[in-house]
Amino acid sequence: MKAFFEDPALLVGLPLLLLGLLGLSMAGLTLLTPQPAGAAAVRHPAHPGPEEYVKVGATLAAITAVEVIIYYFSIPRALFVTMLMALSLTKFTIVVMWFMHLKFDSRLFSTMFATGLIAAGAVFTVVLVTLGANIV
Question: Which pTM does this prediction carry?
Fold first, then answer.
């Protein structure tokens, strides 16, 4: 019998199985969790109008401009990467919440999206480690 790190089926399959079970349990818990008292009365809040989307687009453009400006300063590499990652995470969150409408939809959709994102990150990490990247 091969060791855990020598068997590709175990190395990839087992983490994916565990993540799948985690996702199913999170989705189940989300469905079973009672909604707040006021949530039953308002099923779907009104989606924003075009002005709101223009504001969101301007915010995303401003964050992108800050990212480009940061590139031209001589900042230590670790700080530079940290700043760009934080700004990118901010932009990602804004896009997901507004343009994918997760801000206005059920918590189940947000849970499913987050579970898929975590699973994709885990698979990416497993593949990098398998291919010899020293990230862990």
Answer: 0.56
